[in-house]
UniProtKB/TrEMBL annotation:
This is Sec1 family domain containing 2. The gene is SCFD2. PANTHER family: VESICLE PROTEIN SORTING-ASSOCIATED. It comes from Ailuropoda melanoleuca. One of its GO terms (biological process) is vesicle-mediated transport. It comes from the Eukaryota. InterPro entries: Sec1-like.
Amino acid sequence: MCAEIGQVRGGTTCTVLTVKASRSPIPGSVSSKRSSCTPGPRLCEPPIMSAPGVLSFTQQGWEQVLAKVRWALVYLDAACAESLHWGCGSTRLLEAVGGPACHLREFEPAAVGGGAEQPKAVFVLSCLLKGRTVETLRDIICRSHFQYCVVVTAVNHAVHLTANHVPAAAAAELEGQPVFEQLEEKLCEWMGNMNYTAEVLHVPLLFAPVAPHLALTPAFASLFPLLPQDVRLLNSARPDKRRLASLNEVDASALPPELLLQIRCLVSGLSSLCEHLGVREECFAVGSLSRIIAADLANYGPAKNRRKTATGRASVVFVDRTLDLTGAVGHHGDNLLEKIISALPQLPGHTNDVMVNMVELTALQNEEKNQSMVAPGCLAQSNDPAARALWEALLSTKHKEAVMEVRRHLVEAASRENLPIKMSMGRVTPGQLMSYIQLFKNNLKALVNHCGLLQLGLATVQTLKHPQTAKWDNFLAFERLLLQSIGESTMSVVLNQLLPMIKPLNQRTDDDYSPAELLILLIYIYSVSGEFTVDKDLGEAEEKVKKALAQVFCEESEFCPLLQKITAHGRRTTPVTQSPKLRGTSHSASLAEVSRGLCLSQSLGHPPAG
């Protein structure tokens, strides 16, 4: 089992299951139910689960949640909503809730409470039940009329004890689950009657299963490997202790408590997955933060009994994303799905899915003003077997084969619905695929039967037509040229080759690189170059590039989402003579530091559409 810590293209922390033998390891789902009355019988029987894997693990967790939601208002945070989105779909949750109205709400301080006719609430949360999360719970409950509250957390009780500074020795002697039990009492207090019913339970819902053996962890979208400049921050936070010279000297004791808790939450989820798989894991790591996480999992107390009874073995390999940034920003992949995720806009509130324009399947004109009138499609099709089969094929096939696979699925679907399809051989074009898709437009039954497949088909068409796709080969050619130049020339020569490509808005054509694309190229350059000598020529070249970039930024009328995150700016409101600062950098910072600092942006794994 492998876990990449950081971001991948179109996603965040990634867990890939590959069970195998291993050597030389690094040494060394429980619920609480306390209520004033016995809850009703289980209302949702789980479906037949597939073979043990990350998909069945997530589905099993959601079945525990679905058993609690009958006639309830359901509040989900973004990470749990994404896990539901990929694991079993919102339709499954709505069916379990029952009733004609939609009872799903986002968990946030401004969330609407429940009225007198809504006495039950279920909160599904990916985080610790502590701090602002508990305050938000209190605020929602106090402005509602709930008589029965269920709080589901993806973080187990042992981590809650750690968060509440309970020593490991004392935690081992505790009976029950006091943190959950105390919160249950608070829930009753906030509902206004201690005889009302409250439950707090742990269900491991940290994974978003993209495929049966591939999962992402949206709850850890912000967990990113340490960078060299972080050593200064760590030293400043511990002035009385030995100074750290490099990342190689950083261990768990040097990390801030918030980061340690985040790591422990991840470790808790991975341990639960290993328990589901019935394996005893052996941990390996490449990178400073990965080393800390691997050691924490290897020494995780609650997992010791599990390992004694496990019948299988698994290798868990953690890799810092920063050790392979070219994989996140490069264009050398010949995969259609990679291009879809790069070209189409991100689905709001999600870290790993995109919006698919569905207007083509309606009577509306495909104009920008109409696009917000129709709910977008997406890539996740958890309840459509045919669409899921196509999705899994897209994950592993090359671009040409993937496009042909999309055509084959559309043709077979149209044939099953007896639609008047005209077969054409040869090269697959966007127009050909769209002609097949539009056959379903005026046939409601066929449209409903194959809605998931049509969403993937439209995603393919929109990607093939997208300007970003047309520039993909340009990126690839330039990256190959860079690789050749870096091998034969100094870094200053490479930067001087890039300089003429940095053009302000009024001089750019569709074939030129946007500011965001230039930043991605810079990250690529500094990632593949490795260590290099800093001399006068390099300093002058970096200053020229920084000056050109600053001028380009200042002349942009509106920043794309990536630049907004990096500069903390939206529309330009400062005079053109003032350069926007990159977040976390100064004007005197070297271009190498700026480029590596850009890795902190959460959009790094999702290159902009231009």
